[in-house]
Amino acid sequence: MGAAFRDRQAAGAVLADRLRLYAGRSGTVVLGLARGGVPVAAEVAARLGAPLDVLVVRKLGVPWAPEVAFGALGPHGVRVLNDDIASRLEPGQIAEVTRAEEAERARREARFRRDRPPLDLAGHTVIIVDDGLATGATARAAVVVARRLGAERVVLAVPVGSTQACEEIAAVVDDLVCPLCLADFGSVSRYYHDFHQVTDGEVGAVLAAAGWADRASRMPPGIAPRGSQ
């Protein structure tokens, strides 16, 4: 099939339409997975009238094929492994990749969150948003983080995903919203006309546009103000 979405913002608009039942609900927060999920999440948050926050999760890639995930890392020491793939690696290889990716995860966490307090999701409905679901490794790590931080309900929302990953992640979330679940998946990029690599600067700009720069201090700990249309 051809590209389904013009760009990440357009994909976010499609997701927001599927998430209308969460619009205006008190206690709902939208988490964008950095980096590619943040522009999608910003559109969702703005259209639902929900606060936007960011979650930094890093994929753990096979050393000789980094695009193949054997797991993922999140804050608070969360590590999720895909045993089918991780079992083929030596412990030293896993440790080396984990060290490198944790350093990068911590760098991005410091840059994106800056002086904001840590996430506090206790009692919240959390909508985790990414730009696609290939293996599901990063999404599973994000779900573990949200549960560990006290989320009452966890929703995963992605514009497109592989059938296998959708089936696996559906078993660990309270709700999965994915307009396109496909068996012949390929890669996330094939479903977008514009799938450029999102930069740190772009994430910062999206968060600033959502009001982080000037209104964050007036929000409850760990929750950013809603974006404006």
UniProtKB/TrEMBL annotation:
TM helices/strands, residue ranges: none
Alphabetic keyword roster: Glycosyltransferase, Transferase
CDD domains: PRTases_typeI
Protein name, as recorded: Phosphoribosyltransferase family protein
Superkingdom, natural source: Bacteria
MF GO annotations: glycosyltransferase activity
Alphabetical list of InterPro entries matching this protein: PRTase-like, PRTase_dom
Segments forming domain Phosphoribosyltransferase: 14-194
